[in-house]
Specification:
- The protein is 7% helix and 44% strand.
- By secondary structure, the chain is mainly beta.
- It is built from one helix and seven strands.
- The two termini are 16 Å apart.
- Strand 4 and strand 5 form a beta hairpin.
- It has a four-stranded antiparallel beta sheet, with no helix packed on it. Strands 2-3-6 form a three-stranded antiparallel beta sheet, with no helix packed on it.
- The radius of gyration is 15 Å and the shape is elongated.
């Protein structure tokens, strides 16, 4: 797994999915033409606080489920924003060679000091065929 930190652009954002797909997301995935429901493949994307003994250890944790009929690579940009609207962390995550119907889980450490009041947003998401 490779992670690339990115900065810059002001793209629109969507809230990161919680642990399970919502009923609305499942309905949208059913109604959306093939190729338009890629974002629904990101089943969950959340912050996980593993801090101990006063030492901060905040990770991002995700689950991808390939709902397409081909092996796929996923790439998405994210940002963590505090309650005042200040972006405290951002990056790009990759998950590659996910077979049709397969679920892939991943995790990566962040530089965040706390999850309190933090909002995790997806700023872009892309699924491409894997070769």
């Amino acid at each position: 797994m490779t992670v690339i930190a990115v900065g810059g652009g002001d793209e629109s954002t969507t809230p990161a999915p919680s642990g399970t797909a919502t009923r609305k997301a499942r309905q949208e995935a059913k109604r959306t033409p093939q190729g338009k429901s890629e974002r629904a493949d990101l089943v969950s994307f959340r912050l996980d606080d593993r801090s101990e003994a006063g030492i901060a250890s905040i990770w991002i944790v995700w689950t991808i489920k390939n709902n397409s009929s081909e092996k796929s690579d996923y790439s998405w940009d994210w940002e963590a924003v505090d309650a005042s609207g200040t972006r405290l962390a951002n990056g790009t995550q990759l998950d590659t060679d996910v077979r049709p119907g397969q679920t892939a889980r991943g995790e990566y450490p962040t530089t965040l000091k706390s999850v309190k009041g933090m909002k995790l947003d997806i700023t872009s998401f892309d699924r491409t065929a894997s070769y």
